[in-house]
Amino acid sequence: MLDYILTEEQKMMVDLAAQIAEEKIRPVRAELDEKQEFPHDLLAVFAESGLCGVYIDDAYGGMAGGTPIMNMVLVAEQISKGCAGIALAFAGSALGALPIIISGTEEQKKKYLSRVAEGEIAAFAITEPNAGSDAGGIQTTAVLDGDSYILNGTKQWITNGGEAGIYTVFAMTDRSKGARGASCFIVEKDTPGFSAGKKEDKLGIRASATRELIFQDCRVPAENLLGKPGSGFMTAMKTFDASRPGIGAQALGIATEALELSVQYARERKQFGKPIIANQGLQWMLADMAMQIEASRALIYAVARHIDSGAGRPTAYSAMSKTFASDVAMKVTVDAVQVFGGYGYMKEYPVEKLMRDAKITQIYEGTNQIQRDEIARALIKEAASKKK
């Protein structure tokens, strides 16, 4: 890998995450995938190692050190090499915590971020049956009643749903304003009127828990409102700006694992009296996989550093990092199955799981088609500004 000039602290994070992936995650990933079992024991390992706080400011028990998104990307990449489903417990908590980091008061940050840094699971709840990519179509409502808001509605496909203790939930406080009438609330797991529905049976990332969330006259203290009423849409957009490189990093980890396994297998597998890696056609496949992966890594790291620098809205670049890396992960894992041939199609070998896991990175936190809309919108805006 190229030298990306990481700090000593970041190198330690990478080494620690890689060690956990090798020693703790790889031995159990197939079993947890098959059983769809949430990795509670591994979350405890992440917490004990301090990895749960790499994106949280030191003032709240974390170890962000001024580079929270870069830290998150580095750790997510390594854990995802072990298993993307297991890594999603970590990444999903980061997504759930980001609205608090972005819009929380000092009191909210002290109360909740310290808990996440210590290993409590968080979740982000915006998607609904009729509001996926269209965040402005949220139907869940929040009505002010004295010193509380009453939430009613259903969220769908929520990562860490039912497992998290802390949820950042988006609901409409003024439907007449459309997207500008959405607000964000911190909801704790045991709040009366709040429950989790069935666990989804998924194609990939099966060690991750995905559930619907149900709010029935759920009373949330008004002090749990993040930002001002109606600021939820901006909180969500800023959250995605910061989180999408993390999806890119997840895809990057999946693709890197697929390439490494493919090279190893191609060196060992013999056909016609020689290792299959001696075939030029296969060498070119591996070369293309390596080039695409390294290009993904360079883009993701650059975007993460841009976000940490605070140098302007990174929306288009965040979309690029997520889209490019996830498209690469899908292509690389499909090619990895091809390298393995018939064995690649069997669950006895890990590449079919990598291919299943890769697909979701093109879908969640905004489909890649929506990301391309974001990128094109930025290009159009830039071109218009140059004409003035």
Question: What are its keywords?
Answer:
388 residues; alpha+beta; Butyryl-Coa Dehydrogenase, subunit A, domain 1; Butyryl-CoA Dehydrogenase, subunit A, domain 2; Butyryl-CoA Dehydrogenase, subunit A, domain 3; 3 domains; 4-stranded mixed β-sheet; 4-stranded antiparallel β-sheet; 10 strands; globular
Could you describe the 3D structure shown?
- The protein is α+β, with helices and mostly antiparallel strands.
- It contains eleven helices and ten strands.
- The protein folds into three domains: 114 residues, Butyryl-Coa Dehydrogenase, subunit A, domain 1 (Orthogonal Bundle), CATH 1.10.540; 110 residues, Beta Barrel (Butyryl-CoA Dehydrogenase, subunit A, domain 2); 145 residues, Butyryl-CoA Dehydrogenase, subunit A, domain 3 (Up-down Bundle).
- Helix content is 53%, strand content 15%.
- The strands form three sheets. The protein has a four-stranded mixed β-sheet with strand order 1-4-5-8.
- Helix 4 crosses helix 7 and helix 9 runs antiparallel to helix 10.
- The chain is globular and about 80 Å long.
- The protein starts with 7 loop residues before the first helix and ends with a helix.
- The model has no long low-confidence stretch (mean pLDDT 96).
Write a short abstract of this structure.
This protein folds into 3 domains: 8-121, Orthogonal Bundle (Butyryl-Coa Dehydrogenase, subunit A, domain 1), CATH 1.10.540.10; 123-232, Butyryl-CoA Dehydrogenase, subunit A, domain 2 (Beta Barrel), CATH 2.40.110.10; 239-383, Butyryl-CoA Dehydrogenase, subunit A, domain 3 (Up-down Bundle), CATH 1.20.140.10. 53% of the residues lie in helices and 15% in strands.
